[in-house]
TrEMBL record:
It comes from Dysgonomonas alginatilytica. One of its GO terms (molecular function) is hydrolase activity. SUPFAM superfamilies: Six-hairpin glycosidases. GO terms for biological process: carbohydrate metabolic process. Keywords: Hydrolase. It comes from the Bacteria. This is Rhamnogalacturonyl hydrolase YesR. The lineage of its organism: Bacteria, Pseudomonadati, Bacteroidota, Bacteroidia, Bacteroidales. InterPro entries: 6-hairpin_glycosidase_sf, 6hp_glycosidase-like_sf, Glyco_hydro_88, PolySaccharide_Degr_Enz.
Amino acid sequence: MKKTILSILFFTMGIFCISELYARENTDLKNWPKGKDPETIGLLVANRFVESPHNSFRPPAPPKSITYPEVCAWYGAIKFAEVTNNKVLLKKLEQRFLPFFDDEKHLVPRPFHVDYSVFGTVPLELYKHNKDQRFYDMGMRFADAQWTLPVDSPEVKKNEYQKFLDQNLTWQTRYWIDDMYMITMVQSKAYHITGDKKYIERAAHEMVIYLDTIQRPNGLFFHAPDAPFFWGRGNGWMAAGMSELLTSLDKNNKDRSTIMASYLKMMESLKKYQRPDGLWGQLIDKPESWVETSGSAMFAYAMIMGVKNGWLDKNEYAPSVRKAWLALIDYINEDGDISNVCEGTNRKNDYQYYLDRKQKTGDMHGQAPMLWCAWALLK
């Protein structure tokens, strides 16, 4: 009888130890299989960015100006270089920018649209390191332009824009889901550089208005009111935008609790729709849609930020993060390019349209959030 009891006890203890070991391994965001750690992967993707021509995700043609996917990858590479103290990489990223003050001036976009305004994030982020006044002036020009009525607009447009400014919203407001990364990023950076709270306060106010206007009851977002689909990367911009903004907001900010509640609601829904392989689909709630990596990486990034900052319960969300990171790496080739990235996508009220979007490899829409993830995991 004693032997039986002891056997049961030892067996139970063994099961408990195995469960504890599995739980620890599942929530471990520091130790990774060889070659799959964020420093190795981040360096691979960052170096790939440095060697890539401008706007390399587009067909081989001279670009008219720098576009937001390149800006987002550039920002991610800077943050990765910063967290790994890679001064060589940081210098290369700065050198890539310098021609914009001279031979490549024509590639600097005009700040008349959210997709162009986010460009200001890069010079402001580089200014933190080099203290070069040119970088400051350029970055702040983009940040200030979002809340300054464009003088060269037609009169009818000026009236429309002024209505937004009167509500303390940027005149670039349009209630598209990607806006909440493009607007909040450059405003947050302006706040960090200047210490002037007007930048972060107006970004937070803008976010709250967007959330009140377009977030669905399940925490996710339609691509647009006339495109009622939970498109992956579109939702990724919202997830990343809220994460970035929450790290910058003071706990006493009047809008922080509203943004946090919306963030938590979204993360809960994303966890529910995460697939067994660790990733998410081109249409989040449609299991028949294909695996899409750019949105998946953005969701992983938002969850990493939540776990690292204590917004999300580590035991509940770290396993989702670990599974997503390891799954994403399987889509990266030896050159550092990630596959299964949805091509640029405008809104359309057509389910099949989203399923038929081209899947690209090396598109910076996907390269960028992999760099964000690598930085956040190492932070």
